[in-house]
Design goal:
This protein is mostly beta strands and 147 residues long. Strands 1-6-5-9-8-7-11 form a 7-stranded mixed barrel. The longest helix has 8 residues.
């Protein structure tokens, strides 16, 4: 079982995300107020603190959201989850994993700030299957593959 460490959003694409107290997950969108929300397969991004800690070990000072992740997790090997996996967050929200990693575009703020981005290898993306509110401290349970 894992845990939500932080929920983050940005109001514009191409910016690092900022931590918020809680996030409302909306079907066919993602997290309310996030610039990357919309009816597509990458509504919400997740990144494990373990991956961020690897970058911190290289001497970087990083905050939650610096890799443009919506949800910072702890205790789950996200990149090993198969597409279609359902994640239950807190008491309400269910997300379906739709993509593992992503192609990094050159010149992004993250690359300029950190020198390397871990999202292409360690981040995952999901869609909202059941709406609700999430916040730091919520438990994350890995369910069966959807379908």
């Amino acid at each position: 079982m894992g845990k939500v460490l932080a929920v983050c959003i940005s109001t514009r694409k191409g910016e690092q995300k900022k931590e918020i107290p809680q996030g409302e997950c909306i079907i066919d969108f993602g997290i309310k107020g996030d610039a990357h929300g919309g009816n597509w397969h990458r509504q919400i991004s997740l990144l494990g603190t373990e991956s961020v800690d690897e970058m911190r070990a290289k001497g970087l000072t990083l905050s939650n959201g610096d890799f443009a992740e919506n949800i910072v997790t702890e205790g789950i090997s996200l990149k090993l989850l198969p597409i279609g996996t359902i994640l239950s967050l807190g008491n309400e929200v269910e997300l379906e994993v739709t993509q593992i990693g992503k192609e990094c575009h050159s010149g992004c703020v993250i690359m300029k700030t950190a020198g390397k981005c871990v999202m292409p290898t360690d981040g995952i993306f999901a869609i909202v299957k059941k709406p609700g509110v999430i916040q730091a401290g919520d438990e994350i349970q890995v369910q069966n593959v959807y379908g």
